[in-house]
Amino acid sequence: MRISTTRSALLAGAVAVTLSATALPAAFAAPSATAVISEVYGGGGNSGATLTRDFIELANAGSAAYGLDGLSVQYLPGAPSAGSLWQVSALTGSVAPGGRYLVAEAAGAGGTVALPAPDTTGNVAMSATSGTVALVSGTAPLTCKTAADCAADTRIVDLVGYGTAVVREGSGPAKGTSATASVARAASLADTDDNAADLTAAAPSPVNAAGETAGGGEDPGDPGNPTEPGTVRIHDIQGTTRVSALDGKAVTGVPGVVTAVRASGSRGFWMQDTAPDADPRTGEGVFVYTGSTAPAVQVGDSVLVSGTVDEYYPSSTAQSVTEITAPRVTVVSSGNALPAPVVLDAKAVPGKYVPSAGGGSIDALPLEPSTYALDLYESLEGSRVQIADTRVTGATTKYHEVWVTVEPRQNPTRRGGTLYASYTDQNSGRIKVMSLDPAAPVPTANVGDVLAGTTSGVLDYDSYGGYNLQATALGEVVDHHLRREVTRKQKGKELAVATYNVENLDALDDQAKFDTLAEGVAVNLSSPDIVSLEEIQDDNGAVDDGTVGSEATLKRFTDAIVAAGGPRYSWRYVAPQDKQDGGEPGGNIRNVFLFNPERVDFVDRPGGDATTPAEAVKTRKGVTLSVSPGRIAPADAAWDDSRKPLVGEFRFHGRSVFVIGNHFASKGGDQPLHGRYQEPVRSSETKRVQQAQEVNTFVKSLLAADKSARVVVLGDLNDFAFSPAVGALTDGKVLKPLITTLPENEQYSYVYEGNSQTLDHILTSPGVRRFDYDVVHINAEFADQASDHDPQIVRVDVNAPAHGHGHH
């Protein structure tokens, strides 16, 4: 198996560890007389390597068997970046006293000799030259990125850094690793907690629990090129579950016809058996991964392929792709007819999306392709498929990908998309389409357009959206002339308040971005009185030099609005402390209010800064703010490394209006809808619920001082109307989410993976008795977009009588 975030990784590695059933050492600062990592090899499958894959070997210097259930080995790149993650290989079983335990890791395209039969198989692509391997009590990924931090983590039983690894024990990492050299402990398995002293480089020598060495266990197959098919067929490899029963095993002479070739990126080819079995669960297509070597086959070639079966995981939470790696290919004949493609349409694709494993892995569940869409797609992984006349539900991206639906009646939106209606009602007909021919990419299309005629190719899977059609023949886009919306102008007595995520705007951006965003405000939003902006960065964007002000950015933006025919806006914001608000590193992202001083007054109350909380102050005339502009509970842990809400007090037609601009924590880190864990865990939700509770508490404090206070809460909440976060925000019915007042097929402002959904919101307090609300679709459904979010606007009658009512 392999887990990787880059398909070009060819590196592989091996680790050996000594284990004991005695208590784990408190930290690797104390040398271990029992559990150690005895050998690490990251060159498997590399050019020049003999072994075809990486390995980690564990050893036990103790006198009793050492249990491994619940433990893991984990890998970190030698020079970890902010985005580097520890990759986990879970362990089971035990190691005998004085014995070994072999963890096979990623395979590459090179090498000719297989490992001995591994005791467990991971999928980590390790570097041949530099990295860190840890033996860990538990399977949760480590988070440490320095030697000192890792030394303080009591879960680490032993650790080996090699090459130039930053994270290592003692005076330095073990030296001398390469495509042909591992680092290993002496036969005594002595551990002084100094990697440079304890491990030396030599030819890799993996040993499994049975005492077998390389070439002595797992059959590497015929190193030559067979001319007759072997006993294994593709459907035997694919099997009846997501993970092959032959994972890690060698296969010889697997027959198939080449159906498609990928000559760049993650190189290889797809082949398909022309003599399928009768079981709809067992796939007939498979990807043959050639790594850095361009495949020497053509579509229509009849081939026999020998190699190693491997489950490739594009990420730790993705499903796997079954592949044959380190292949040896014999071309038997050319110009053969291809198997007919399977037609994917509303009749073929089930309405149910995926089975449940109670939050666990669905890898081992028997496939039910007639019941679940993801099971059907899995059963067709690597096979030829065809779609026809599909509606576009996600516009063409900069990566030349487009989302379509083969279930046109599934939750359609008014403008041609597919609505994401609830966690339990997934849209099973969504498929991503991309072209295998770089010279003929997917054409530009907007939501509602139609990919007309037939599009055919092979069904693949990646971590960026799941199952996708790698097209060898593309249909043509029929333009349905989607137009950007223009909302009506507010009436004289209406206060117009809008929210707009302007996607990391800073003064270094191109003028074209400013102009397009400005037109959105001046023309499409018809110049609101107040605009709450999200993702305004400091004046030099990602440059990390301590700059926190946004004056130049806002000057350029407001100038562009005037040039687009809008008013001369003023602005207010609270500058963040440097590097304390998350977002793009160095960007110092923040929320900002623009307002038209010809229509509305901002009530300035001094003292608001990055660390001072705004509070509600009860007066004889109602409620006011202690500081304006200000921030809500900026010291609370809910806002750690996240944007703090901006609150401001405005006056319109003699009435006070309180506006709270928000940008809650992102959904990064959540498990994907299409992943192997079902139902997916939304780990980022916890922080947004905490943030929502803070804002809810603040709104309640305003209403406690004046129950008729007019409060508008708005911004990018990074969550859905049906989410626990929005539920926490509205707790006690102090806020009404206006998105739910629209017809259901209009309840969206964002499109992700072909799903039309809502992350942006406007909510109002009971004191806002009459309103007119609109989502203005100008970005999310279009291939050409200034931001990935659509703005929203509410027009409020601040003098509406108590018996008034909301409308839209």
Key phrases:
single chain; 808 residues; mainly beta; seven-stranded mixed sheet; 8 helices; 43 strands; 9% helix; 32% strand; disordered N terminus; disordered C terminus
Summarize the structure.
It contains 8 helices and 43 strands. The strands form 9 sheets. Strands 2, 3, 4, 9, 10, 13 and 14 form a 7-stranded mixed β-sheet that branches. Strands 31, 34, 35, 36, 37, 38 and 41 form a 7-stranded mixed β-sheet that branches. It has a 6-stranded mixed β-sheet with strand order 29-30-28-27-43-42, covered by helices on one side.
Protein model, in words:
- By secondary structure, the protein is mostly beta strands.
- It has eight helices and 43 strands.
- The strands form nine sheets. Strands 2, 3, 4, 9, 10, 13 and 14 form a seven-stranded mixed sheet that branches. Strands 31, 34, 35, 36, 37, 38 and 41 form a seven-stranded mixed sheet that branches.
- α5 (511-524) crosses α6.
- Mean pLDDT is 91; it is low at 1-27, 216-224 and 803-808.
* DSSP helix fraction: under 10%
Question: Span from first to last CA?
Answer: 54 Å
Mean pLDDT: 91
Shape: globular
Q: In terms of structural class, how would the helical and strand content be classed?
A: mainly beta
Give the SSE layout:
Blueprint: E1 2-3, E2 15-18, E3 35-41, E4 53-60, E5 66-67, E6 71-77, E7 87-90, E8 94-95, E9 100-107, E10 120-121, E11 131-137, H1 147-151, E12 156-162, E13 182-185, H2 195-198, E14 199-202, H3 234-238, E15 250-262, E16 267-272, E17 285-291, E18 302-313, E19 321-333, E20 342-343, H4 373-379, E21 384-394, E22 401-405, E23 430-435, E24 450-462, E25 466-473, E26 476-478, E27 494-505, H5 511-524, E28 530-536, H6 551-563, E29 570-572, E30 590-595, E31 601-603, E32 616-619, E33 622-625, E34 630-631, E35 646-652, E36 655-663, H7 685-705, E37 710-716, H8 724-729, E38 736-737, E39 750-752, E40 755-757, E41 760-764, E42 771-775, E43 792-797
Parallel strand pairs: 1-18, 9-10, 17-19, 20-21, 23-25, 27-28, 36-37
Antiparallel strand pairs: 2-3, 3-4, 3-13, 4-9, 5-8, 6-7, 6-11, 11-12, 13-14, 15-16, 15-18, 16-17, 18-19, 21-22, 21-24, 22-23, 24-25, 24-26, 27-43, 28-30, 29-30, 31-35, 32-33, 34-35, 35-36, 37-41, 38-41, 39-40, 42-43
Helix pairs in contact: 5-6
